[in-house]
C-alpha cells in the first residue's frame, strides 16, 4: 500500500517510517502491482507498443504516459504514478521535470552512460548458477535479455539477486577498478546496482565463501 505523509511524502506500508503517521491513502496493493507492471513494460521493454516515443537515454514524455495510463486504468492518476516512483525502495524510476524513465532493467537499446556517475568501488559482484559459472569464467559476462549487465555493489546484494533464479549461486567478484582503467564504462544507478555493457573474463574471479 502507498500512503502520503504530509511531512515526509509518499511511503509504502501502514505508517510513515519517519514519524509513524498513518498518512493519506493513495494506492492499494493490487493497484500498485498492476500499475507497476504497466510502467515497467512501458519504460523498459515496449514503449512503442503502448504509443510512447523514447529518446536515446530512455526518457519519455510524462504527460503522454499519464494519458495512455489513464485510458487503460480509470483510477490511474498522475499522483498515483508519482507516488509509485517516489516510494519505490529499489529506485527503479526517476522523474525530471516533464520526463520520466527507468533507471535500469531495459531490454530496449538505450545509452545511460552520459547521465550517471562512474563507479568508484574497486570490486563489484555478480551471481550466477552453477551451470553458468564455467562458461562465463571463460567467455566473460555479456548482456543477453537486457541492455546492460546489472552488477551488485555488495556480496549480499549479489546473493539476493541470484537466489531469485538459482538455489545455490556462484558469486563472481569483478575487478571493476582495473576494468575501468582499461576503458570499460561502469555506471552507478543506485546504491545497490551498477551497469556495464559487458565484462571480459580477465576481470572475473569466483568469490570464495568467507569462513
TrEMBL record:
Record's keyword terms, sorted: NAD, Transferase
A Pfam family of this chain: PTS_2-RNA
InterPro entries with a match to the protein in the record: Ptrans_KptA/Tpt1 (IPR002745), RNA_2'-PTrans_C (IPR042081), RNA_2'-PTrans_KptA (IPR022928), RNA_2'-PTrans_N (IPR042080)
Entry coiled-coil feature ranges: none
GO molecular function terms listed in the Swiss-Prot or TrEMBL record: NAD+ poly-ADP-ribosyltransferase activity; tRNA 2'-phosphotransferase activity
EC number: 2.7.1.-
Keyword Transferase: yes
Keyword NAD: yes
GO terms of biological process kind: tRNA splicing, via endonucleolytic cleavage and ligation
Its biological purpose: Removes the 2'-phosphate from RNA via an intermediate in which the phosphate is ADP-ribosylated by NAD followed by a presumed transesterification to release the RNA and generate ADP-ribose 1''-2''-cyclic phosphate (APPR>P). May function as an ADP-ribosylase.
NCBIfam families: PRK00819.1-5
PANTHER family from the UniProt entry: PUTATIVE PHOSPHOTRANSFERASE, TRNA 2'-PHOSPHOTRANSFERASE 1
Family of this protein: Belongs to the KptA/TPT1 family.
Protein known as: Probable RNA 2'-phosphotransferase
Species per Swiss-Prot/TrEMBL record: Methanolobus halotolerans
Gene expressing this chain: kptA
Amino acid at each position: 500500500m502507498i500512503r502520503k505523509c504530509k511531512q515526509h511524502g509518499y511511503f509504502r506500508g501502514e505508517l510513515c517510517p519517519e514519524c509513524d503517521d498513518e498518512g493519506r491513502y493513495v494506492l492499494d496493493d493490487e493497484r500498485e502491482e498492476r500499475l507497476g507492471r504497466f510502467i515497467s513494460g512501458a519504460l523498459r521493454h515496449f514503449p512503442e507498443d503502448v504509443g510512447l516515443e523514447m529518446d536515446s537515454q530512455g526518457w519519455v514524455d510524462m504527460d503522454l504516459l499519464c494519458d495512455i495510463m489513464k485510458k487503460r486504468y480509470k483510477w490511474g492518476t498522475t499522483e498515483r504514478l508519482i507516488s509509485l516512483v517516489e516510494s519505490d525502495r529499489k529506485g527503479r524510476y526517476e522523474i525530471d521535470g516533464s520526463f520520466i524513465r527507468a533507471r535500469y532493467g531495459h531490454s530496449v537499446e538505450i545509452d545511460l552512460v552520459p547521465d550517471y556517475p562512474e563507479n568508484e568501488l574497486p570490486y563489484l559482484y555478480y551471481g550466477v548458477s552453477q551451470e553458468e559459472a564455467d562458461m562465463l569464467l571463460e567467455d566473460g559476462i555479456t548482456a543477453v535479455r537486457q541492455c546492460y549487465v546489472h552488477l551488485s555493489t555488495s556480496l549480499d546484494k549479489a546473493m539476493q539477486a541470484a537466489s531469485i533464479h538459482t538455489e545455490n549461486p556462484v558469486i563472481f567478484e569483478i575487478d571493476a577498478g582495473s576494468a575501468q582503467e582499461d576503458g570499460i564504462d561502469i555506471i552507478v544507478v543506485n546504491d545497490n546496482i551498477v551497469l556495464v555493457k559487458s565484462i571480459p573474463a580477465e576481470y572475473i574471479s569466483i568469490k570464495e565463501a568467507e569462513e
